[in-house]
Design goal:
It is a single chain. This protein is mostly helical and 316 residues long. The protein has a single domain, classed as Orthogonal Bundle (Tetracycline Repressor, domain 2), CATH 1.10.357. 81% of the residues lie in helices and 0% in strands. The chain contains 14 helices and no strands. Helix 3 runs antiparallel to helix 6, helix 9 runs antiparallel to helix 12 and helix 13 packs antiparallel against helix 14. It is flat, with a radius of gyration of 22 Å.
C-alpha cells in the first residue's frame, strides 16, 4: 500500500472512530431523556400489581405474554410522559444544579427529536396495552400520562401541593398491573392506589428537604419551602401512617396473606420510627441526614411491598 492509500485509510478510520462515540452519545442522550430510573421503579410496581392480581382467587393465573406486554406497554407510556416532562421543565432544569446536564438543556437532543421520541413511545405503549390487556388498563395509562404531564406539570410550578398531585400518576402503574389481569377497578385496586400515593409523599418530601436550596433557586414552591420543614415532617409521618393503615385495609379485603402483611408492616413500622425520630431535629445538616435516611428507607419499603405482593400467593 502506498503512502497516499495509507493516509486515506487513516482518515477513514479516524472518521469512523469519531462517529462511533458520537452515535453512542446520541443513543445515551435519548435514553436518559426517558428518565430510565423512573421507568424501572414504576415497572417494579407494575409487575407487583400484575402478579398480585394473577395470584388472587378466581384469577386465570399468569399469562407471561400479557405480563411482558403490560410491562413494556406501561414502560413506554411512562417514557413518553418523562420526555414531555423534560420538555416543559426546560426553564426549571436550566436553573437547578442537578438537572443542568439533562439532554434538552445540554443540547444533546433537539426539541424536535424529543417530540418524535414522545410520540413514538406514547403511541407504541398505548397500542401494546390495547392489544394485549384491556380498555381499563389503557384508561389507567392515559390517566397517569395526563396527570403527570399536565396536572403535575402545572401544579408544581404554582402550588406547594404539587407533590400530592404528582402522587396520582406515581400510583397508576401498580393499578395498571392489577387491571391488566382483573380487567376492572375495585376496592383492591383503590387500596393499591392509596398505598402507592401515600408512599410517595414521604419519599419525595424527603428529597425536597435535602435538596431544598436547589428547588428554591429554581423557584419551585415545594411544600418544605412554603410551609416549612416542621410541617413537612408532620406530613411525612401522617402519610406513612396512611400507608400502614391502608395495608391493613388491604388485608381486611381478603387478598393479602398474613405473612405478607406482617413482613410489610414490620418494615413500614421501622420507617415510621425513623420519621418520628426527626421531629425534634433542628434544621441544618442533621435534618438533611435525617431526610436522606427517610428517603433511603422508603426504597427498602417499596422493594418489600413489591416483593410481598408479587409472591403473596406462595405465602401462608
Amino acid at each position: 500500500m502506498n503512502s497516499s492509500s495509507k493516509t486515506k485509510a487513516s482518515v477513514t478510520d479516524g472518521r469512523q472512530a469519531a462517529e462511533a462515540p458520537s452515535l453512542a452519545r446520541t443513543i445515551s442522550a435519548y435514553y436518559r431523556l426517558t428518565k430510565p430510573g423512573i421507568i424501572y421503579g414504576n415497572s417494579l410496581t407494575t409487575a407487583a400489581g400484575f402478579l398480585f392480581a394473577a395470584g388472587m382467587a378466581g384469577s386465570p393465573g399468569v399469562s407471561w405474554g400479557t405480563f411482558v406486554a403490560t410491562l413494556v406497554g406501561s414502560g413506554l407510556v411512562i417514557a413518553c410522559g418523562c420526555v414531555l416532562n423534560n420538555y416543559i421543565d426546560r426553564p426549571i432544569d436550566a436553573r437547578m444544579r442537578r438537572t443542568r446536564g439533562r439532554p434538552l438543556i445540554s443540547g444533546e437532543v433537539s426539541v424536535a427529536g424529543a417530540m418524535v421520541l414522545a410520540a413514538i413511545t406514547g403511541l407504541a405503549g398505548l397500542i401494546l396495552l390495547l392489544a394485549f390487556t384491556n380498555l381499563v388498563t389503557v384508561y389507567v395509562g392515559l390517566l397517569g400520562l395526563y396527570t403527570y404531564v399536565v396536572a403535575y406539570g402545572y401544579a408544581k410550578r404554582r402550588s406547594p401541593w404539587g407533590t400530592l398531585v404528582g402522587s396520582i400518576p406515581g400510583a397508576t402503574p401498580i393499578v395498571a398491573g392489577y387491571t391488566a389481569v382483573a380487567g376492572r377497578t375495585d376496592l383492591t385496586a383503590l387500596a393499591l392506589f392509596i398505598i402507592m400515593a401515600a408512599w410517595q409523599i414521604p419519599h419525595f418530601y424527603a428529597i425536597a428537604i435535602y435538596r431544598l436550596k436547589d428547588y428554591q433557586a429554581a423557584g419551585i414552591p415545594v411544600f418544605a419551602a412554603v410551609k416549612g420543614i416542621a410541617a413537612t415532617k408532620r406530613h411525612i409521618i401522617g402519610s406513612i401512617i396512611v400507608f400502614i393503615a391502608t395495608l391493613g385495609g388491604l388485608y381486611l379485603l381478603g387478598p393479602v396473606s398474613a405473612t405478607g402483611l406482617i413482613v410489610t408492616m414490620a418494615v413500614s413500622t421501622v420507617w415510621l420510627y425513623k420519621a418520628v425520630r426527626g421531629l425534634p431535629v433542628k434544621e441544618g445538616k442533621s435534618t438533611d441526614t435525617w431526610a436522606r435516611g427517610v428517603f433511603g428507607f422508603s426504597l427498602l419499603v417499596l422493594l418489600t411491598l413489591s416483593a410481598t405482593l408479587a409472591l403473596d400467593r406462595f405465602l401462608p
